[in-house]
Amino acid sequence: MQEALLYKKNKNRTVDCELCNRFCNIPEDETGFCGVRKNIGAKLYSLNYNRLIAKNIDPIEKKPFFHFLPGSLAYSVSAMGCNFHCLNCQNWQISQLQRIEKLDNKFPGELIKAKQIIKDAQENNCLSIAYTYTEPTIFLETALPIMKLAHQNKLKNVWISNGFMSKKCLDSIIPYLDAINIDLKFFLNKKYQKITGGSLEPILDNLVYLKKNKIFIEITTLLIPGETNVKGQLKNIANFIVNKLGSDTPWHISKFSPEISFKLLSKNSTSLQELEEAYQAGKDAGLKYVYLGNVATDDRENTYCPECGALNVERQGYIITRNDESGLCQNCKHSLNIIT
Fold first, then answer.
1. Mean pLDDT calculated for residue range 272-292
2. 173 and 118 in one domain?
3. Looking at the DSSP assignment, which residues form a beta bridge with residue 335?
4. Are residues 85 and 6 in the same domain?
C-alpha cells in the first residue's frame, strides 16, 4: 500500500478522492467506486500500488495507435481495478476482479518498481511504456514514477484510457504524457450511465483539454449493436472529433464480440454493414483517418494519404508490411499526422 495522491481529508474522518470525476466521498474503512483506494485511519491509500497484474510486450498498433510510432513495440503495464464497470468490458477478469471476489487489502499482482520496468522495456527494444488493459487513472501512484523515469531514459509514455480522470490527475501526467487513446464509447449520457456507470461530459471536456495541451490523441469507439449506433451517436462522435480535436485525429471503430464481454453475452456481434456505416459517418464528417478494428484482412486498417489517395502504411493485423518513417506521403509529401 501507498498513501494515495489527489485526495482531501475531512473533519468527520471521511476523505474526498480527487483522482477521477466520481470524486468519491469515502468513509473510514471503505473503498471508493474503483475498489482500489481505501480510507484507512482517515488517510486514503492506493491498495494496488506497484502491484502489476499484467505486463507484456505489444505492438503499439494493438493499443491501438496507428499514427504514433508505427511499427514499434510498447512495454504494456497494468494494475487491477477500474473506475468504470463497463458491461462490455473485455478485460473484466482484471478490471473487475475486486468486485467479483470482494478483495480487501491483499491484492494480486507482481510487486515491481519503476526502475525494473524501464530496464525491461529497454532490453526488449520498446520505444514506449503503455499504461493499458485496465484504466491507468486508478493506478496513478504506480504509473507516475514510471512515466517520469521513462522520460529520463528517452522512452515515450502512452495511456489507453476511458478519459474520466479529474483535471488534477491530467495536470499531474501531462508533463510526461506523449500520447493517449481514449475510448469515446457513446455520445449519449444515458448510454454511458447504463453501460459504464460513468458520464459523457467530463470525457469530452478532458479531450478538449488534452488537445489544448498538445497531447497526441487517437480515439476508439467499440460499436455495440443497438447501443452505440442509435440516435445519431456515431455521426455526433465524428462531428465532435472534427470540430474539437481536428479532422486529422485517427478514429478507430472496433467490432464488438459478446462472447468475451463482461455481461453483454446476449448481444449480437457487430456486422460488417454496421461497421461500414460507422466508417462512412466518419468520412462524411470530414475525418481523414478512419479505421475498422477487429476485422480480419480489411484494407480500412491501412493509412492512405487524404490528399492524393496513395497507400502509405499497410497493416495486416498488428504487423506493418509497408511504412515510410518520414510521416509524409511517399507520393505527394503531404503530412499524414504520424509521429515517428
1. 96
2. yes
3. 328
4. no
* Same domain, residue pair 85 and 146: yes
Compute the Cα dihedral for 109, 113, 118, 124 and give only its sign. negative
3-class secondary-structure state, position 180 = strand
pLDDT for 211-261, tens place per residue?
Answer: 999 999 999 999 999 999 999 999 999 999 999 999 999 999 999 999 999
Residues belonging to the chain: 340
Residues 7 and 155 in one domain: no
For residues 247 and 157, state if they share a domain.
yes
- Residues ≥6 apart with Cβ < 8 Å to 98: 31, 35, 36, 80, 81, 107
User: Helices 272-285 and 233-240 meet at what angle, rounded to 10?
Assistant: 40
Segment (H or E) for 14: none
Helix, strand or coil, per DSSP, at residue 276: helix
CA distances from 257 to 34, 92, 97 (A): 25, 14, 21
Which grid cell is 135? Answer: 484504466
pTM attached to this predicted model:
0.95
Burial (CB count within 10 angstroms: exposed 0-12, middle 13-18, buried 19+), residue 311 = middle
| Range(s) of the domain holding residue 239 | 51-322
